[in-house]
Amino acid sequence: MCGIVAYIGKKEAYPIIVKGLKRLEYRGYDSAGIALLNNGELNTYKKQGKVANLEDFTKDKDCSGHVGIGHTRWATHGPPNDVNAHPHASENGNITLVHNGIIENYNSIRQQLESKGYVFKSDTDTEVLCYLIYDIKTNTGVKLGKATRLALQQVVGAYAIVVMCKDEPNKIVVARKSSPLVVGIGKENDFYVASDATPIVEYTKQVVYLNDDEIAVLNKEKGMKLFNIDEDQKEPYIEELELRLEAIEKEGYEHFMLKEIHEQPRSIKDCFRGRLNAEKGWVSLGGIKDYEQKMIKANRIIMIACGTSWHAGLVGEYLFEDLARINVEVEYASEFRYRNPIINENDIVIAISQSGETADTLAALELAKSKGATILGICNVVGSSISRITDAGSYTHAGPEIGVASTKAFTAQVTVLTLMALYLAKLKGTISETKFRTMLSELEAIPQKVQQILDKNEGIKLIAKQYKNASNALYLGRGSSFPVALEGALKLKEISYIHAEGYPAAEMKHGPIALIDEEMPVFVIATSGPSYEKVVSNIQEVKARKGKLIAVVTEGDEQVHSIADNTIEIPDTDEHLVPLLATIPFQLLSYHIAVMRNCNVDQPRNLAKSVTVE
Ligand code: M6R
Question: Rounded CA gap, 372 and 346, in Å?
Fold first, then answer.
C-alpha cells in the first residue's frame, strides 16, 4: 500500500509531487509528506491525514527545490500520525526516503543498529531502512546508489523506495521488489517517479516500469542508470504510455465512483471491442490463444483473487462450468497461498485483479508458477506486476478505476470471463451454434441495457433514501446471482459502513433468517430464469417475517412486484449475463446511501485501492 511520487529535474518539484500524491491518494490516506532538496538544505513536511492537510501545513513554508520525494500512507507499522508519516530521515537528517511495502526483518535490523547506538524516532520499518543505508554509506564511504543496493541485499520483504541524500543533490535512487514503481523519462534528464503512471502522464508518455530487484540512479546531469540488485548494469526498457489524462479526472461527476458506475456502458464495450462479432459468429481472445488447448483439456482451472475480483471469479465459475464444462475452483488468494495447495504442471491458475498489484494474489500466483502451473491473468492495469509475471492473459480495458470501491472493473472482469467461457465452449464443442450466436448478440446488447438501468438512477436514489439509516442488510441471490449478492453486500459495507451479508438465497433458512424483522432490508435478485420460482419462495419467507424487501426483477415482472416493498426492473437477457445487469442497481444504491450518510465515497475509512501488503 501507500503511494510514492518523486521528481528530479529543472522544474519546481513541490507542485508536481503534491498533484501526483492527490492522484495516488486511493492507495492510502492516513498521512502525507514531502521532502525537498534546495541549495544544500533538506526541508521535510509531514502531516497526518490527507494530502490537503499537508498542503495547508506547507502554505507558509519554503517549498522550493528541483528535487523532491513525496508519500501518501496506508499505515502498517505504527499508528497514523505525523511522526510515522513518510519521508523518513537518517539520524543526522542527511538521507531521506519514502517507501511502499513491508520490511519483514526490520526488527532484527533495528536491534542491530540500536546496538551501534542509533536511536529511532518512529515505529516504522521504513526508518530502519533509512538508517541502514546511512550506516553503510558512512562506514564504507560508498555513494548513495551502492549504499542503497547493499542495504537492500539485507532486506527481506517488499519495497518500492525513493532515496535522496543531501550530499549527492543531483540524484535520487529508486528500487523495487514486489511493490510497483514507474519512472517517467522527461526531456533533458528530468525524471518523474510514481507508484503508478497517473501522476506522470501529463508530463511524459515515456516510462520504464521497474522490475523486481532492480535499482536505478536518476541523475539530472548524467541520466538514468539501471542495475540489478547484485550490481549488473542493464538497459532500461522504455515503454509508451497509453493512458489518457481525462480518464483520471472526475469530468464533472461528484465522485469518481459515480463516474465509474456511469462509465460502464463504455467500459463493457471497450472490453469486448474487437473480441467478438455477433453477426459473423466469432469470439477471439488473442491473449490466451497459445494456451487454448491446454485450457480445454485442463482437469480444472483455479481462479485466485481477492475482494470484488474474487466475486467476479465466482461468476466465472458458473460460466466456465455451464458453458464450457470445465471444472473450476475459485480461491481466496490469501488462503490458497498458505495451504500447501496441490498443483502441478497440468493445472491452469487464473489470477483476477483490477490493480494487478494485490500482494496476496501476486504471491499465490508465484506459488502456482513455482509448482509448474500455467499462470494466466485478467488485469485492468496495463503493465502491472501480475500482468507481467503471467504466461499470458487478457486485459479488461475498463480504464483507470480511482474510486476505492470497485465497480466498472467488476463488470469488465465478468465480461472477459464471459468471453473466455464462450471461446472455450465453442472450441470444445459444448455449446450449440444457436446458443453461441444468441449469447454473442445478447452480450453485444449489454452496454445499452446497462444504460437503461443507469437511466433509472433517480428512482434508485429514492429507494436508497428509505434504507439509509439501516444498521444491517442482507443480500440474496441464487446461481450466478449469488456472487452479485456478495458484491452488493461488499459495496454497501465498504462505503456506507452498514453491516451487510450476502447469502445464497436458499441458505437463508439455515441461519440468517433469524435476523429478519421489520428493520432488516433484504435485497434480492429475482430475475426470470430457472430458479425464479425458488427465489419467490425465499422472498415469501422474508415477507412472512416482516423483512423489508427490495427486489431486482426482470422488466414486466408482476409476481415479485406484488410482494416486494420496492422493485428495480432490469432488461431481460440471457441468464448467464444477468450478473452484468443485476449488479448495477446495487452499485447505485450503495453509492446513494453512502452519500446520504455523509461518508467519503471515494476514500472509505481504513481502505485503500491497491492492497500491496499481505
Ligand atoms: O486490485 P484487485 O482487484 O486485486 O483488488 C482486490 C480487492 O482488494 C478489491 O476488489 C477490494 O475488495 C475493493 N475495495 C472492492 O470494492
Answer: 8
| Residues annotated catalytic, as ranges | 2, 609
In the numeric block, which cell numbers belong to residue 58?
506547507
467 plus 442 within the same structural domain? no
Domain count, the chain: 3
Residue nearest to atom 9 of ligand 1 (CA): 307
Residues spanned by the domain of 234: 3-247
Q: Is the pTM of this model over 0.85?
A: no
**Residue 316 covered by a domain:** yes
Instruction: Summarize pLDDT for 417-475 with one digit per residue, the tens.
Output: 999 999 999 999 999 999 999 999 999 999 999 999 999 999 999 999 999 999 999 99
How many angstroms separate the Cα of 406 from the Cα of each of 411, 413, 419? Answer: 9, 11, 21
- Residue-wise pLDDT tens digits, 503-530: 999 888 898 888 888 899 999 999 999 9
Q: Which residue has the cell 500491496?
A: 612
Question: What is the whole-number distance in angstroms between the Cα of residue 354 and the centre of ligand 1?
Answer: 7
Q: 67 and 188: one domain?
A: yes
What is the position in ligand 1's atom list of the atom closest to the CA of 306?
A: 6
Using most ligand atoms within 8 A of CB, pick from 611, 612, 613 the residue to mutate for ligand 1.
611
Residue 257 CA to ligand 1 centre (angstroms): 14
DSSP H helices, 153-305, are 256-262, 264-272, 292-297
